[in-house]
Amino acid sequence: MIGILGRAVRATLAATAMIAAFQSGAFAQTPPPKNDYANGKNWLCLPDRAKDACSTDENATIVAADGTLTPEPFKADPKAKIDCFYVYPTVSYQPTGNADMTAGPEELSIIKDQFARFTSVCRPFAPIYRQVTLAALNAAMSGKPIAASRELAYADVLDAWNYYLAHYSHGRGVVLIGHSQGSGVLLQLIKNEIDGKPVQHKLISAILMGTRLAVPAGGIIGGDFKSIPLCQAAGQTQCVITYASFRAEAPPPANTRFGKVGGAGMVAACTNPASLAGGSGELHSYMTTSGSFGPIPLTRGPWVKGKTIDTPFVSVPGLLSAECMANAEGSYLAITTHPDPSGQRINEIGGDVIVGGKVQADWGLHLIDANLAMGNLVDIVRDQTKTYLTDR
After folding, report:
1. Helix 4-12 and helix 134-141, axial crossing angle in degrees, nearest 10
2. DSSP H helical segments within 89-214, as ranges?
3. CA atoms 121, 301, 108, 274: torsion sign
4. What's the confidence (pLDDT) of residue 356?
5. What confidence score (pLDDT) does residue 20 get?
6. Cα–Cα distance between 347 and 385 in angstroms, integer?
7. What is the DSSP string of 59-102?
8. What pLDDT shows up at residue 299?
9. Residue 239 host element (H or E)
10. CA–CA distance, 263 with 131 (Å, rounded to integer)
11. 94 within 8 A of 104, measured Cβ to Cβ
12. What are the C-alpha distances in Å from 23 to residues 181, 184, 227, 249?
C-alpha cells in the first residue's frame, strides 16, 4: 500500500507539469477569498523579525579535497540595502489541490536550502501562497485530476508582491528568486507586471531556477521577456539568470522535462551562474550534510570518511563546475564533477530523482538546482547591489 509520502514523491516528479500548466491553464478556476498580506502570519520571511523561517542555521564547513575541514560561519546582514522576494517550489504534502496558508515542515526546509543564505546580501520577503500541491500534480499525471487552481497560486503571489511594493519597498531595489513552480509564477508576474513597466527600474535581477524561459536562438532578449535580457556580466542589473541542471555525463534525454520551449526560433535560455559571460566556471555549491526530499536522498555522504561535520551545509571547492550546453533535446546547465582519487573528500554528489531505485534521467539534478550554485548566486547579487546603488 502506497502511503501519502510515496504519492508525494511521485508527484514531485511533476514539477514540470506545473510549468506546463501555468502556460496551458489546465486546472480549475474557482478562487476563494484573497489573503491579507498585512498579516505577518502570511509570510514565511520578513525582515526585522526576531525569528521566522529565514532565521535558520546556514553555517557551513569548507571541505577541501585532502579532507581538511574549515568552519565557515554565516551571518545575515540586518542592514542590507536591497530586498529579495522569493517564491518557493512545489513542496506541499497537503492532500488537497491547493495548499492552505499553514506552512508545514516542507516549506520551512526549502527556505533553509534555497533562500535563507541570501539574507547575507538582502532583506528577505517570502510569502506563503496557496500553491498547487504535489497531490494535485500526481493526480493530473495519473489521468485522474482533482480540483486545483493555478490562478489562485498566481493571485496570491501577485497580492503579496503588490503589498510588498506598497508597504515594504520604499523605493528599494529587489531581486526576484524562484525555483520550479515558484519560477513559473514569477515568470508570469514579470511578464504581466514588470517587463517594460515603470516598476522595472526597481528590478535588480530575477533568478528563475528549474524552469523554461524562451529566448530567440542565439539571442539574450525577446521571447518571454521583451525588455529584460539574460545576465551576461558581473554587476549587470535588470537582467535574468535561469537554468536547469543536468550531469554533464547524463544530458537531457529525448523525454526531458526541461530545456525545451515552444515557438518558432525559440530556445530555452541558460545562464551559467559560475560564468555569466559564457564558458565553464567553478561552482560555489552549498550542499547539505544530510537531507532528503521525502525518501529521495540528496547527499551521498559522509563527505570525509572518519570525520563528523556538525554544520548543516558544506562547501566543496574544486569539486564541481558548470557550463551551458545544448544537445538535440534542449539546452541545459551541464554539471561536471572533478574527482580527486588521491584525496579524502567524497568524489560524487547526490541530487538525482530516484524512483524504485532507478535514476529518472529526464529530471536531471532538478532537486538541487539551487544548492549547486548558491554561493555563485549570492556573490552575483552582491555585485549587482553595488552597481544598483552606484547607479541610483
Report:
1. 70
2. 105-114, 134-141, 150-164, 181-189
3. positive
4. 85
5. 46
6. 35
7. -EEEE-TTS-EEEE-----TT-SSEEEEE--S----SSSB--S-
8. 72
9. strand 239-243
10. 27
11. yes
12. 12, 9, 20, 31
Provide the β-strand partners of residue 72. Answer: 60
Residue among 68, 120, 114, 59 nearest 311 (CA): 59
CB-side neighbour CA atoms (13 Å) of 317: 11
Distances (CA, A) of 338 to 111, 238, 302, 316, 318: 29, 34, 17, 11, 7
- Residues paired with 85 in a beta bridge: 125, 176
How many H helices and E strands in the chain? Answer: 7, 20
- Give the pLDDT score at 267: 96
* Residue 88 contacts residue 126 (beta carbons within 8 Å): yes
Could you give the CA distance from residue 25 to residue 16 in angstroms, rounded to a whole number? 14
Residues written for the chain:
392
pLDDT of amino acid 383: 98
> Hey, what's the cell of 327?
544537445
**C-alpha cell of 331?**
539546452
Contact criterion met (CB below 8 Å) for 207 and 175 = yes
Place of cell 485522474: 144
User: How many other CB atoms are there within 10 angstroms of residue 48's CB atom?
Assistant: 7
| pLDDT given at position 141 | 73
Q: Which residues contact 174 (CB under 8 A, 6 or more apart)?
A: 82, 83, 84, 85, 164, 202, 203, 204
Nearest to 212 by CA among 273, 262, 274: 262
Residue 95 φ then ψ, to 5°: -80, -10
Contact between 339 and 346 under an 8 Å Cβ cutoff? The reply is: no
The 3-state DSSP class for residue 323 equals strand
Segments of the chain scoring below 50 in pLDDT: 1-29
